[in-house]
């Protein structure tokens, strides 16, 4: 076999490798976009079952993304900072009715008072206090 | 103390506070809760809602929330017991109680600081006067001991004790007479609707909930017919006020808007969501009057249907699919024939709601659906899950929930009719002397449905009506009925319910609460008086016979 006979198979294999590389990169990029979305969904602390599925480089990327989002948010609002991860949909009211889906213990609200979140109890609370817990699945927004 | 101005003394007090709502598990309480929740949403009053099923639940809920809340609103619980004694709250806790249970405990009536009763003072209460039952220890000199409000020697007016050294047993007798009979007052939902009206924040939804609360009292036989008719008239005034826009042809409302109407409708349970035939067979009034558990009764029913000219095929169809020509004059046709067959009161005053093209419901339909959801015996539903489902079914946006409730209600009614038929045919109702007694054995079909208080009470009332229609013994017709059914197999307990005798002019007053307490005490039976209605208790199976014997002796 001369060298020129091997060229097509080399070319073929090289194309395959390039294609595989493109697929892997697309996969990794999609993962990155999803990890970015996690910051918006879960907040800055990810639950352990999600962190379990991420490799250390991804975790590093996540914390860098967190930092850059935080510094961006700090720069808004004439230096005062604005939390843009709140109120993802335009809020309809200051207070919302929520139902507790699992026992969560006590929740402290702005004026220092404490609310006991027991399964199946319903509460009428300020929206900003509830959003985090709604995302975490502890509370459920009741629309009647 | 009784509140006179519900806006100033209740609503404005809680306006900027956080409130704990402790709500009992009956349909009237749920309706009252919905009305209050709407008002709170409107004015952004923060609250926490906790369902309670009995005294133990109430105490637990209070213990859990006592640190965090100062204001507690109790709906359909708490009035008929010395609440401060039971809960031992802090001095600054305030309780607003809106409860239909009567008699209101005298300590609750005469406490000025912590107990506020959201009950009308003229609501047929008959509370003994302060002087007759309380005597202050310091007032030996004989000066005015009736001055409850500004008697400086009182320790913050919180807890009054009966002075044991009282001369004579006069006060004991008065108290005994006052507390002997248990009955119900004006619906809690109606009270909160009145609050909404005073605040001019009442909506049609709230009006509908108030109507459902009132109808619940009628369906479960808690109030007299007179009172029902009077309250219906009150509600009718509100309905007219809310409906005046409908008549205006130019600006008529869209068909999707909610319309409430007064109806003089048939006493056939759920007939619009069932077939007419099934509804006639499973409604207490028709079933008892025709005696549908006998062959003769079945024949009479066929004659009745023939008399009205209703073909069997039509009558067995789903109501919505019946011919329009039949549906049009149905009520009048049925009323005419019923009069011939001795069913004089086949029609009853009630209300209906109508929104969208498909959705028409009567108040009694809603009551049955919600009650069935509340007491659903679904294995994976806990009591609070059922409470939430039932609460959801009251909103117009949760029609699936409502329809599932209606299906459950149909099953429940079928079970009740079958149980009634079998009890009467197998002579399961025994006369024990001063009362009738019936025990549902463990293997009885659907017996787990009757481990719940409301379902068992409904069965009890239907059974007594059926018994009165079927027996020839004149004395037995005047007796009250006690029913027992297995409640928990693991704990080995039965649930016992006692209802007053069946009569046209019954005042619905029930003496079994006190009787059960005394009988349990005298035989040291292991009982649990956990339910807010004192005539419903739980008893260990082994203690059944001695408990019954004690009752017989007590009531003879």
Automatic annotation (TrEMBL), chain A:
SUPFAM superfamilies: GINS helical bundle-like
Gene3D superfamilies linked: 1.20.58.1030
Keyword Protein biosynthesis set for record: no
Entry's localization field: Nucleus
Keyword entries, A-Z: DNA replication, Nucleus
Residue span, GINS subunit domain: 8-76
A cellular component annotation (GO) from this entry: GINS complex
GO biological process, one term: DNA strand elongation involved in mitotic DNA replication
Database matches in CDD domains: GINS_A_psf1 (cd11710), GINS_B_Psf1 (cd21696)
Broad class of where this protein is predominantly found: nucleus
InterPro entries per record: GINS_A, GINS_bundle-like_dom_sf, GINS_Psf1, PSF1_C
Nucleus keyword on record: yes
Record-annotated DNA replication complex GINS protein PSF1 C-terminal domain positions: 92-143
Pfam hit, one: Sld5
Oligomer and partners: Component of the GINS complex.
PANTHER family given in the database record: DNA REPLICATION COMPLEX GINS PROTEIN PSF1, PARTNER OF SLD5
Family: Belongs to the GINS1/PSF1 family.
Functional summary from the UniProt entry: Required for correct functioning of the GINS complex, a complex that plays an essential role in the initiation of DNA replication, and progression of DNA replication forks. GINS complex seems to bind preferentially to single-stranded DNA.
UniProt name for this protein: DNA replication complex GINS protein PSF1
Gene (UniProt): gins1
From TrEMBL, chain B:
Biased composition annotated in UniProt, kind: Acidic residues: 136-153
Pfam families: CDC45
Entries under InterPro entries matching the protein: CDC45
Keywords assigned: Cell cycle, DNA replication, Nucleus
Region of interest (Disordered), residue spans: 136-159
Highest taxon of the lineage: Eukaryota
UniProt KW Cell cycle keyword: yes
Subcellular location: Nucleus
GO biological process per UniProt: DNA replication initiation; double-strand break repair via break-induced replication; mitotic DNA replication preinitiation complex assembly
GO molecular function: chromatin binding; DNA replication origin binding; single-stranded DNA binding
One Gene Ontology term, aspect cellular component: DNA replication preinitiation complex
Family under the similarity heading: Belongs to the CDC45 family.
Protein name: CDC45 cell division cycle 45 homolog (S. cerevisiae)
Gene name linked to the record: cdc45
């Amino acid at each position: 076999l001369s060298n020129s006979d091997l060229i097509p198979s080399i070319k073929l294999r090289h194309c395959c490798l390039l294609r595989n590389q493109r697929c892997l990169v697309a996969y990794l990029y999609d993962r990155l976009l999803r990890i970015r979305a996690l910051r918006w969904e879960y907040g800055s602390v990810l639950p352990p079952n999600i962190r379990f599925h991420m490799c250390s480089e991804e975790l590093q990327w996540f914390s860098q993304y967190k930092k850059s989002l935080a510094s961006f948010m700090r720069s808004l609002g004439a230096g005062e900072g604005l939390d843009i991860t709140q109120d993802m949909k335009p809020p309809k009211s200051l207070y919302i009715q929520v139902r507790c889906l699992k026992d969560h213990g006590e929740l402290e609200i702005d004026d220092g008072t404490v609310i006991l979140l027991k399964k199946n109890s319903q509460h009428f609370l300020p929206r900003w206090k509830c959003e985090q817990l709604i995302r975490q699945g502890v509370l459920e927004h009741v629309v009647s | 103390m009784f509140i006179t101005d519900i806006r100033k003394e209740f609503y404005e007090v809680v306006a900027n506070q956080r409130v704990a709502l402790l709500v009992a598990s009956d349909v009237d309480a749920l309706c009252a809760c919905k009305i209050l929740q709407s008002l709170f949403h409107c004015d952004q009053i923060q609250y926490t809602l906790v369902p309670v099923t009995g005294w133990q639940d109430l105490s637990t809920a209070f213990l859990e929330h006592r640190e965090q809340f100062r204001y507690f609103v109790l709906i359909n619980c708490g009035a008929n017991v010395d609440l401060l004694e039971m809960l031992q709250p802090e001095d600054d806790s305030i309780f607003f109680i809106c409860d239909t249970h009567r008699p209101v405990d005298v300590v609750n009536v005469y406490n000025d600081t912590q107990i506020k009763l959201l009950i009308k003072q003229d609501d047929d209460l008959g509370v003994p006067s302060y002087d007759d039952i309380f005597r202050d220890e310091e007032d030996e000199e004989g000066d005015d001991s009736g001055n409850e409000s500004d008697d400086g020697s009182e320790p913050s007016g919180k807890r009054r004790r009966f002075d044991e050294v009282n001369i004579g047993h006069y006060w004991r007798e008065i108290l005994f007479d006052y507390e002997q009979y248990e009955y119900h007052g004006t619906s809690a939902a109606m009270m909160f609707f009145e609050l909404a009206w005073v605040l001019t924040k009442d909506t049609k939804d709230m009006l509908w909930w108030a109507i459902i609360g009132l109808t619940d009292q009628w369906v479960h036989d808690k109030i007299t017919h007179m009172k029902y008719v009077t309250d219906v008239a009150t509600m009718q005034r509100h309905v007219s006020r809310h409906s005046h826009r409908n008549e205006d042809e130019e600006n008529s409302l869209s068909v999707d808007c909610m319309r409430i109407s007064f109806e003089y409708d048939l006493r056939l349970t759920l007939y619009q969501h069932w077939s007419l035939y099934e509804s006639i067979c499973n409604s207490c009034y028709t079933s008892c009057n025709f005696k549908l558990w006998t062959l003769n009764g079945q024949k009479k029913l066929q004659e009745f249907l023939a008399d009205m000219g209703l073909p069997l095929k039509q009558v067995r169809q789903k109501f919505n699919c019946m011919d329009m020509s039949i549906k049009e004059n149905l009520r009048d046709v049925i009323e005419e024939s019923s009069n011939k067959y001795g069913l004089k009161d086949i029609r009853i005053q009630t209300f209906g709601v109508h929104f969208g093209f498909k959705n028409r419901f009567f108040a009694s339909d809603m009551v049955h659906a919600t009650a069935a959801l509340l007491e659903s015996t679904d294995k994976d539903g806990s009591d609070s899950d059922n409470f939430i489902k039932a609460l959801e079914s009251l909103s117009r946006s949760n029609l699936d929930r409502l329809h599932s409730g209606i299906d459950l209600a149909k099953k429940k009614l079928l079970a009740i009719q079958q149980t009634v038929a079998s009890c009467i045919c197998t002579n399961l109702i025994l006369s024990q002397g001063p009362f009738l007694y019936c025990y549902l054995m463990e293997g009885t079909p659907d017996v787990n449905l009757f481990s719940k208080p409301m379902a068992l009470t409904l069965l009890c009332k239907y059974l007594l009506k059926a018994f009165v229609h079927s027996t020839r013994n004149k004395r037995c017709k005047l007796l009250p009925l006690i029913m027992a059914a297995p409640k928990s197999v693991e704990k080995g307990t039965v649930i016992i319910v006692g209802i007053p005798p069946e009569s046209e002019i019954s005042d619905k007053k029930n003496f079994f609460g006190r009787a059960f307490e005394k009988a349990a005490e005298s035989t040291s039976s292991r009982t649990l008086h956990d339910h807010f209605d004192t005539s419903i208790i739980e008893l260990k199976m082994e203690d059944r016979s001695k408990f019954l014997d004690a009752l017989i002796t007590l009531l003879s």
